[in-house]
Design a protein that fits this description.
Elements: E1 10-14, H1 18-30, E2 34-38, H2 41-51, E3 55-59, H3 67-77, E4 85-89, H4 94-102, E5 107-110, H5 115-153, H6 164-181, E6 185-192, H7 195-202, H8 204-221, E7 228-233, E8 236-242, H9 246-263, E9 278-285, H10 293-309, E10 315-317, E11 322-323, H11 341-344
Parallel strand pairs: 1-2, 1-3, 3-4, 4-5, 9-10
Antiparallel strand pairs: 6-8, 6-9, 7-8, 10-11
Length: 345
């Protein structure tokens, strides 16, 4: 980026007259700038793309395509950048000046070119180009900051997992993909067993640490690119497994349950004799036009409460009518709305 008026400029000098180019090139060299020369509009466009000059000095009247055409093509070839274009012309009518600006030019120098005026124009364009580069840098920084903020808005601050908003977005994407590809989509809704007792005994700070540990474990189980672990709310979590069948979901849940056991996180309400466990509900479907995010989550939620009614520390799946502990469904017809709260909590 140019930051000083004394910076060396790379200048593309375009003029069909070799004598005019020689005079201007000598003046630019005396000012300490580097010059690339072209003798026609087509060559100017080619050299602009190849050399990426800091400034273009362009004759207007040339055989074939004129300078206005070349300026227009330069702007089309590089729409996000701004390189100053100064036209060189003996035409001083208002219409000629307006046509040059409309074509993409930024200023005019009238022939014969005064070295003093040329140097002043270059300094002015150099300052403008430096400001343009600074603006582009700030725009890039702002874009990156917005991307970071967007990422943060989809993250749960406690566990670092995707939050409920991010989960809803991904669920919608994966539901559409599964419906389009006619592939199964599995949702696991799980929570930490007896977590209220954990908080009441150890306090909320240690409870937060427990949730962080569980969140890290769940994130580690999502090894495929599209698998997702998210915090649903409180001590509830969701794992999204695109392209996973009923049997695959049950195998995943069994492995997850073993992993939680291996974590061996003591549950303070049981004097360290028992460790933290999780219960979960599994919902798997090949979505059709009637499938919704709400229906998937509702079925997983009902399966979660069934798992709790069967004794916790297990996953239950309505589709297979089995749980991950016994392999059978002692309470397959469990009704969450009619179930006893004493049985659940």
């Amino acid at each position: 980026m140019l930051t000083s008026e004394s910076s060396v400029l790379k200048i593309l000098l375009v003029d069909d007259s070799a004598s005019h180019r020689m005079v201007l090139a000598a003046e630019l060299d005396a000012m300490g700038h580097d010059t690339v020369e072209a003798d026609c509009a087509e060559d100017a466009l080619r050299l602009y793309k190849l050399e990426r000059p800091d400034i273009v000095l362009m004759d207007v009247e040339m055989p074939g395509h004129n300078g206005h055409w070349a300026a227009h093509q330069i702007r089309l070839s590089d729409p996000e950048a701004w390189t100053p274009i100064i036209f060189l012309s003996g035409l001083a009518r208002d219409d000629d000046l307006a046509a040059g600006i409309d074509a993409g030019g930024d200023d005019y120098l009238f022939k014969p070119v005064s070295p003093v005026v040329l140097q002043a124009k270059l300094r002015a364009m150099q300052r403008l180009r430096a400001l343009s580069q600074q603006l582009l840098t700030l725009t890039d920084q702002l874009r990156a900051s917005n991307a970071d903020l967007q990422e943060l808005s989809l993250r749960d601050p406690l566990t670092g997992l995707t939050n409920r908003r991010g989960l809803d977005i991904r669920l919608d994407e994966e539901l559409r993909a599964a419906r389009r590809e006619k592939l199964p989509l599995t949702v696991l809704l799980l929570d930490v067993d007896n977590f209220k007792l954990y908080n009441d005994t150890a306090g909320h700070l240690q409870g937060d640490d427990c949730l962080r540990r569980i969140g890290q474990l769940l994130a580690g189980t999502c090894r495929r690119p599209r698998d997702l672990a998210a915090r649903f709310g409180g001590e509830e979590f969701v794992i999204l497994l695109p392209g996973t069948s009923h049997s695959g979901a049950m195998l995943f849940a069994k492995a997850l349950r073993r992993t939680v056991h291996q974590l061996a996180l003591p549950h303070p309400a049981h004097g360290g004799e028992r460790c933290v466990t999780i219960s979960g509900g599994i919902s798997t479907a090949v979505p059709d036009g009637n499938s919704t995010i709400e229906s998937l989550l509702s079925r997983a939620d009902a399966a979660l409460y069934t798992a709790k009614s069967l004794g916790r520390d297990r996953f239950f799946c309505f589709e297979t009518q089995t749980d991950t502990t016994t392999g059978v469904a002692e309470a397959a017809n469990y009704d969450r709305d009619k179930g006893s709260s004493a049985d659940l909590f």
